[in-house]
Design a protein that fits this description.
binds fe (ii) ion, binds FE2/S2 (inorganic) cluster, seven-stranded antiparallel sheet, 2 domains, five-stranded antiparallel sheet, Naphthalene 1,2-dioxygenase Alpha Subunit, Chain A, domain 1, 20 strands, Rieske Iron-sulfur Protein, alpha+beta, globular, 9 helices
Length: 371
């Protein structure tokens, strides 16, 4: 196997990207699955999915098969699988007094406790499985890691508030890519000037307020990009329309930021844009196949009064996301070619624009090496 390393001979592993094999090797994927994804935190839902007692939402992504329900003012995460013959009990969203299985009418209360099992002489003690939830900033998570403690360095960063949002859209799709290829694109700003003609016009890629954090071994990366001001002319028709509507919504004031990206290692991304939040989770299907689930939220007041902003906001997000997916696919294609030839190549990081990517790679290296 040949190895091509860009940069001086003295560079050490942590100064270079990951080996190509890490994007294809099932053993690496198994370590990532066990040591990273199973260790969480794993996103479940935003609080607005269940606003009143009795509201429920059947979840997807990594929480597929689970049911979020509000009971006594608090979200509960319950199994959506009946304890009798394992039927799926609910679909979509709605309101209910009790959970009633549609097959033989077993009924459970909103804590998951079995209330009724018709025609059984003896009462089976079979409650629904319940999963603990932890809240950070209106977002609920599962998993053994304490997400609040993990993200406590972000306390006081007021732009991250997600309290009064409503869900607009959910996308779920699969791609022939290693899961890391997606995150790698989101974790570096180096590509923005080349890949995003519309978005790059409104931001300065070197204007970073980076918060590189590693607290007690728990990891994340969060950064904010500010708006170039005054706004230059937009470079794509969708961004031209977006900037016009944004300017109108803000009455000519400068937007508080262009974008904030928070990545919880391993597989959660939370993005903020003016009046907008997108939560994306990645599910590992194989070394080269990944499922993405993105939930699009908008500020409630904007969603109720400015549908034009919601529509053009979603359109520019689709434009930028499409460009990012193309970039991730291009990375994967290059690595595929090397992998097929049995070769490896690792290149250096551009700092500070690839600092988030480097942090992510360092985290992975540490975990894989200690597994
Ligand atoms: S499968 Fe649910 S009551 Fe029988
Ligand atoms: Fe991008």
């Amino acid at each position: 196997m040949t190895q091509t390393i860009a940069g001086p001979e003295t560079q050490v592993d942590s100064e270079l990207g990951l080996p190509v094999s890490w994007y294809f090797d099932p053993e690496i994927l198994e370590i990532e699955r066990r040591e990273l994804f199973a260790a969480g935190p794993t996103y479940a839902a935003h609080i607005c999915r269940v606003q009143r007692d009795g509201d429920y939402a059947v979840l997807g992504g990594q929480q597929a098969g689970r049911l979020l329900v509000r009971h006594e003012g608090r979200p509960q995460l319950l199994s959506n699988t009946c304890r009798h013959r394992q039927a799926e009990m609910l679909t979509g969203t709605g309101w209910m007094k009790n959970i009633v299985c549609p097959i033989h009418n077993w009924a459970y209360d909103l804590n998951g406790r079995l209330l009724a099992a018709p025609h059984f002489a003896e009462y089976p003690c079979l409650d629904l499985e319940r999963t603990d939830l932890t809240e950070w900033n209106g977002l609920w998570f599962t998993g053994p890691r304490d997400v609040r403690r993990q993200l406590s360095p972000l306390d006081g960063w007021t732009e991250l508030s997600t309290t009064d949002y409503v869900l607009e859209r959910i996308d779920e799709e699969e791609h022939d890519l290693n899961w890391k290829a997606f995150l790698e694109v989101y974790l570096e700003d180096y590509h923005i000037g080349v890949v995003h003609p519309g978005f790059r016009a409104m931001v300065d890629p070197t204007d970073l307020r980076a918060a590189l954090q590693a607290v007690g071994g728990e990891r994340f990366f969060c950064e904010q990009m500010n708006v170039r001001w005054p706004l230059p002319p937009a470079a794509t028709p969708k961004f031209a329309e977006y900037l016009k509507v944004l300017n109108d919504v803000l009455d000519g004031r400068r937007p508080p930021f262009a974008a904030i990206w928070l990545c919880l290692f391993p597989g959660q991304l939370v993005e903020w844009y003016p009046f907008t939040m997108v939560v994306t989770t990645y599910t590992l299907l194989s070394p080269t196949r990944t499922r993405l689930r993105s939930e699009y939220y908008f500020d409630r007041r904007i969603a109720e009064t400015r549908r034009d902003y919601v529509e053009i906001g979603l359109a520019v997000l689709d434009e930028v996301t499409g460009e990012d997916h193309m970039a991730a696919q291009t990375l994967q294609n290059g690595r595929n070619a090397l992998w097929q030839r049995g070769e490896n190549a690792q290149g250096p990081y551009q700092m500070p624009m690839e600092q988030g990517l480097r942090r992510f790679h360092d985290c992975l290296r540490e975990i894989v090496q200690n597994a």
